[in-house]
Design brief:
The protein has 11 helices and 15 strands. The chain has helices spanning 40-45, 112-116, 119-132, 149-160, 172-180, 192-199, 217-222, 246-250, 260-266, 270-284, 300-308, and strands at residues 2-6, 15-19, 29-38, 63-70, 82-86, 95-98, 103-105, 140-143, 164-169, 185-188, 205-210, 224-232, 254-257, 293-296, 316-319. The chain is α/β, with parallel strands linked by helices. Strands 3, 4, 5, 6, 7, 14 and 15 form a 7-stranded mixed sheet that branches. A 6-stranded parallel sheet has the order 10-9-8-11-12-13, with helices on both faces. Strands 1-2 form a two-stranded antiparallel sheet.
Length: 322
């Protein structure tokens, strides 16, 4: 089967399209993937910069969507089912064999290409809002990096939960992407603190979802209302910020981390519980998933570079059928 491997930990230039044997199907659900999601942790793994360092060569990627080829009789799946999968051993390959607990039936309303990029970002957004921020009805959410894959997922999940959002973007073109993903308001990153104050009548927002970090961090804290929560999702901006904790006392605000992958390593059944909440929203259309930017498998390095340069908008995915 065709696959992508990281053969050298030097960044996107270290990935190669290769031929590999198909995985052992014993006791697993075998899925022929149409597409696989590309996420920022995949980029970090190509240079050994992620918290979990895998020895080369390895197949990157965690999420994908496709058609079940075969499944154990007690798995709940059968040949021909449309599914999304979490493939922790690597998803950037034509065929995966995965445990039934990490396979989820995809509603007909969602295409396989859109579904391929759903799990990582949408489950992370749901985790950040419901488990870490403990969001409540009527709250307002500020989303940084709102035109990226994770940012658009945060906007969509927040909208499905009935929350107002303020999307922070770097350009007007990216503002259009955020609006297409159901942002209530959009503001430019330059001067976002003042724009947020004006939009909220000086009150501030209840939650900040921040996958960017860097020099936006302090103004994000200043943009929180009393009892607000700043949720750290990552550091695509490069710099890992620090906080003087006395600031947390001023308005009883908090800073919390949202490491979905680490949480799942401790509670392997958590994604299934999340899916039970999100699947009805997908099926009804209350939760929407945009089509990703698709790259062919042979251009996996270019897909990663689009994340590195932050030129990508929305989700990026690899087509595994061409």
């Amino acid at each position: 089967m065709r696959a992508v491997q990281v053969v050298e930990a030097i960044g996107p230039d270290g990935v190669r399209a290769v031929d590999l044997p198909e995985p052992d199907p014993t006791g697993q659900v075998v899925v022929d993937l149409d597409a696989a999601g590309v996420s920022f942790p995949d980029f970090l793994q190509t240079s050994g910069g992620y918290q979990v360092v895998r020895p080369t060569p390895f197949v990157p990627g965690v999420e994908g969507a496709g058609i079940v080829r075969e499944a154990p009789g007690d798995s709940g799946f059968r040949a021909g089912d449309r599914v999304v999968v979490l493939a922790f051993g690597g998803a950037w390959q034509r065929t995966v064999a995965v445990h039934p607990s990490t396979v989820f039936a995809l509603p007909d309303a969602v295409t396989l290409t859109a579904g391929a990029g759903f799990l990582m970002n949408y489950l992370t957004a749901h985790f950040a809002l419901t488990e870490r921020a403990r969001t409540r009805a009527g709250e307002t959410v500020l989303v940084h990096g709102a035109a990226g894959g994770l940012g658009t997922a945060c906007l969509q999940v927040a909208a499905a939960l009935g929350l107002d959002t303020i999307a922070v973007v770097s350009t007007e073109d990216k503002a259009a992407v955020a609006k297409a993903n159901r942002a209530t308001h959009t503001v430019l990153a330059d001067g976002f603190k003042d724009a947020v104050a004006e939009l909220t009548g000086g009150r501030g927002v209840d939650i900040v979802l921040d996958p960017v970090g860097g020099d936006r961090f302090l103004d994000s804290l200043r943009s929180l209302a009393a009892n607000g929560r700043h949720v750290v999702l990552g550091f695509t901006g490069g710099e890992i910020p620090t906080v003087k904790v006395n600031r947390l006392l001023l308005k009883n605000i908090s800073v919390v981390g949202a490491g979905w992958g680490e949480y799942v390593r401790e509670d392997f059944g958590y994604p299934a519980r999340q899916w039970a909440e999100l699947e009805p929203l997908l099926a009804s259309g209350a939760l929407q998933v945009a089509e990703p930017t698709l790259f062919p498998l042979e251009r996996a390095g270019d897909a990663l570079k689009s994340l590195e340069s932050r030129s990508a908008t929305g989700k990026v995915a690899l087509s595994l059928t061409t």
